[in-house]
């Protein structure tokens, strides 16, 4: 999604963009095409794809094969930049994909937040709140330009547009509308776990909950069925085109720690965060330390349910929501994609 946001901003500036994705469960090929972008959809791997901690396996095929298929897709057109956004790809893939097609003079922009592998990057973007340039010294060429921190978060421009009108309303909010967004696909079905936990709590009678999932989420149907039997009002929506509106109307969010964390900050939406992957933990702790959110813990570890109960009770206290809203709104203004496009154009 963040690559699509970047592509749309680049296209508005007169640049053509082409996507290379794999035919894996939950891919967004249809959305990319309907957004007016061209797309090469690489064939799905023969074996089933799991999500282990070994990122090298995430593409489902050996990296050399993946790089060659991608290079073949690049061969039909001339490119000035290659944008890489994938935990399983590194300098080996980038070198083969670029050099095998004579793209040695092209720029390579890498989106990362792990700082755990080398990249052939001209520009590297890591939006981590506590990320330092020293974290990447051993992983990128000396001339690589590092764009670090949430000021470079690539988000829909709608959030920045909504920001001036929403922030002044945060001081007067009460806990009434809760937004749950645990990721578009939510393979672990963490949404169901959060709803089940909330259903066992004593919540305000006027509480309204909205759950957001992607249309390809494998547990979408079961979550909709679960919502019908809850003790509080709960609506489940899929593929919403106006997430900025939902976040602006919500008084509190319960969500994962991905790119939506910065969307919440732009509109000052207080949030309770649950990490659903190990790489999300540092970001969650950094946001919590900044007073911008409350970290509930990891979905895989016991105890987060009790923290959620305590946090929901705290959010009913005077000033609690406003304090989180104020701290979070200072971290990200939603204009990162504009800054990134300016860097790309200046270097092209």
Structure write-up:
This protein is α/β, with parallel strands linked by helices. 35% of the residues lie in helices and 17% in strands. The chain folds into two domains: 2-154 and 335-347, 3-Layer(aba) Sandwich (Rossmann fold), CATH 3.40.50.11190; 157-329, Rossmann fold (3-Layer(aba) Sandwich). It has helices spanning 2-12, 29-34, 63-74, 91-99, 157-166, 190-199, 220-228, 243-249, 260-266, 281-289, 304-314, 320-329, 336-347, and strands spanning 18-22, 38-42, 81-84, 107-111, 123-126, 145-148, 177-181, 208-213, 233-238, 252-255, 271-275, 294-298. The strands form three sheets. A six-stranded parallel sheet has the order 9-8-7-10-11-12, sandwiched between helices. A four-stranded parallel sheet has the order 3-4-5-6, with no helix packed on it. Strands 1-2 form a two-stranded parallel sheet. Helix 1 (2-12) packs across helix 13 (336-347) and helix 5 (157-166) packs parallel to helix 8 (243-249). The longest helix is centred in the first third of the chain and has 12 residues, at 63-74. It is globular.
List the helices and strands and how they pair.
Elements lengths: L1 H11 L5 E5 L6 H6 L3 E5 L20 H12 L6 E4 L6 H9 L7 E5 L11 E4 L18 E4 L8 H10 L10 E5 L8 H10 L8 E6 L6 H9 L4 E6 L4 H7 L2 E4 L4 H7 L4 E5 L5 H9 L4 E5 L5 H11 L5 H10 L6 H12 L1
Parallel strand pairs: 1-2, 3-4, 4-5, 5-6, 7-8, 7-10, 8-9, 10-11, 11-12
Helix pairs in contact: 1-13, 3-4, 5-8
Write a concise synopsis of the structure shown.
This protein has 348 residues and is an alpha/beta fold.
């Amino acid at each position: 999604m963040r690559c699509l946001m970047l592509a749309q901003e680049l296209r508005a500036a007169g640049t053509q963009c082409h996507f290379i994705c794999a035919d894996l469960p939950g891919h967004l090929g249809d959305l990319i095409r309907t957004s007016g972008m061209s797309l090469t959809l690489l064939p799905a791997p023969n074996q089933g794809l799991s999500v282990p901690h070994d990122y090298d396996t995430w593409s489902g095929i050996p990296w050399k094969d993946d790089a060659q298929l991608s290079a073949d897709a690049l061969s039909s057109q001339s490119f000035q930049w290659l944008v890489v956004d994938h935990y399983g790809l590194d300098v080996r893939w980038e070198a083969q994909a670029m050099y095998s097609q004579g793209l040695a003079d092209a720029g390579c922009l890498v989106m990362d937040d792990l700082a755990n592998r080398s990249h052939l990057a001209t520009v590297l973007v890591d939006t981590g709140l506590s990320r330092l340039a020293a974290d990447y010294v051993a992983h990128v060429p000396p001339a690589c330009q590092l764009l670090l921190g949430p000021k470079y978060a690539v988000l829909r421009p709608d959030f920045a547009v909504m920001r001036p009108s929403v922030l002044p309303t945060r001081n007067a909010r009460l806990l009434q509308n809760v937004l749950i967004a645990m990721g578009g696909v939510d393979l672990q079905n963490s949404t169901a776990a959060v709803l089940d936990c909330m259903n066992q709590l004593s919540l305000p009678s006027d509480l309204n909950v909205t759950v957001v999932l992607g249309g390809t989420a494998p547990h979408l149907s079961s979550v909709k069925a679960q919502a019908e039997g809850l003790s509080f009002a709960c609506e489940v929506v899929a593929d919403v085109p106006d997430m900025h509106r939902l976040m602006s109307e919500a008084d509190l969010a319960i969500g994962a720690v991905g790119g939506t964390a910065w969307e919440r900050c732009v509109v000052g939406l207080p949030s309770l965060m649950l990490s659903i992957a190990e790489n999300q933990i540092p970001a969650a702790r950094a946001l919590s330390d900044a007073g911008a959110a409350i970290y509930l813990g990891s979905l895989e570890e016991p105890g987060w349910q009790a923290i959620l109960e305590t946090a929901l009770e705290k959010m009913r206290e005077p000033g609690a929501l406003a304090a989180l809203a104020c701290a979070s709104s200072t971290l990200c203004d939603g204009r990162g994609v504009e800054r990134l496009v300016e860097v790309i154009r200046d270097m092209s």
